[in-house]
Amino acid sequence: MSQSEASGERKPLTLAEVKALVFEKWTSNMERLNLDQKRLLTYLSKFTKVEDAAKAREVVDQLVVKFNLQEEHAVMLVNVLPKSVEELKAYLYKDYPLLGESDYKEMLNLLKGLKEEE
Questions:
Q1: Where are the alpha helices (DSSP H) in the chain?
Q2: Rg (CA), the chain
Q3: Predicted confidence band of residue 1 (pLDDT cuts 50, 70, 90)
Q4: What is the mean pLDDT of the chain?
Q5: Per-residue model confidence as pLDDT tens digits over 4-56
Q6: Spatial distance between the Cα atoms of 61 and 115, rounded to a whole number of angstroms
Q7: Could you tell me which of 74, 73, 13 has the C-alpha nearest to residue 2?
Q8: Does residue 16 contact residue 5 with C-beta atoms inside 8 Å?
Q9: Numbers of helices and strands, H then E, in the chain
């Protein structure tokens, strides 16, 4: 049991991290999976946009440190990978109204870096 599990603390994970945790282990035993596990594998196969879990976490950490985003919001951005500043604003403007145009552009560049490495 990890320290965060012992304390009851929850940590948001990117889809890439979830896929890295379960995909190889579960796909080797498909016949033993329950329906929910099979649905999760299908979802991860269809919607995971970043394959490198470590790189996804690195970008989440950069978004949290550089732009003071909550980790949940940074994970959402990495999972969704918005393609434009307008799309990025739609996700963040309500909670971060003071972010500037240059902040959005820098975030978008970080997120585009993930997509290019796929």
A1: 3-6, 15-27, 35-47, 53-67, 71-80, 85-92, 101-116
A2: 16
A3: very low
A4: 90
A5: 555 678 899 999 999 999 988 888 888 889 999 999 999 999 999 999 999 99
A6: 17
A7: 13
A8: no
A9: 7, 0
Side chain identity at residue 33, one-letter code: L
Tens-place pLDDT, residues 60-94: 999 999 999 999 999 999 999 999 999 999 999 99
* Amino acid symbol at 70: Q
Categorise residue 54: left if φ over 0, alpha if ψ from -120 to 50, beta otherwise: alpha
Tokens of 31: 């016949």
Examine the pLDDT at 2 and tell me if it is beyond 60: no
CB-based contact 91:70 (threshold 8 Å): no
Instruction: Supply the pTM of this predicted model.
Output: 0.84
Q: Which two tokens stand for residue 3?
A: 């320290």
One-letter amino acid of 66: K
